[in-house]
Specification:
- This protein has 141 residues and is of the alpha+beta class.
- The chain contains 5 helices and 5 strands.
- Helix 4 links the parallel strand 4 and strand 5.
- The chain is globular and about 45 Å long.
């Protein structure tokens, strides 16, 4: 699976997963890709940085951060914590519960938990809106 950063003609940015570059091209050509914000089918790949493994531990990478990066990381941690505080933890039942909420079988509410890549792909195919929450080494459920 490949995650692409995408942008529509109205400059709404979002991400989507595809089996391959050809899969993206085929879905785009058939009009299957649309912007979740405005519904536009005029979607292009946005510039994205490659994921490069350096073989270094997270601690070594964290020590190399400057003050601005440390502040941004602290803000990201605070935001992730606020999201968790205002949502119900459903553990490994995330995909099942998200689908129930999406189809009106459960009361609408914020939830968080774990999902496999296959579960996430299936949710996206069903039109269920969700997004990953960053996990940090010092996070505790």
């Amino acid at each position: 699976m490949i995650r692409f950063s995408l942008i529509c003609e109205h400059e709404h940015e979002f991400e989507a997963w595809f089996r391959s570059n050809d899969d993206f091209d085929t879905q785009k050509r058939r009009g299957f890709i649309d912007c979740p914000a405005c519904g536009s089918h005029k979607v292009e790949k946005a510039l994205m940085a490659p994921a490069v493994s350096t073989g270094r531990s997270q601690e070594k990478i964290a020590l190399a951060m400057g003050e601005a990066q440390k502040q941004a990381l602290a803000q990201l941690k605070a935001l992730a914590e606020k999201v968790r505080e205002n949502a119900d933890y459903v553990g490994d039942k995330f995909a099942e519960e998200a689908r129930k909420i999406h189809f009106g079988e459960s009361d609408p509410r914020g939830i968080y938990g774990e999902a496999t890549l296959d579960e996430a792909k299936s949710l996206a195919e069903d039109g269920v809106e969700f997004m990953p929450i960053p996990s940090f080494p010092d996070d505790r459920n």
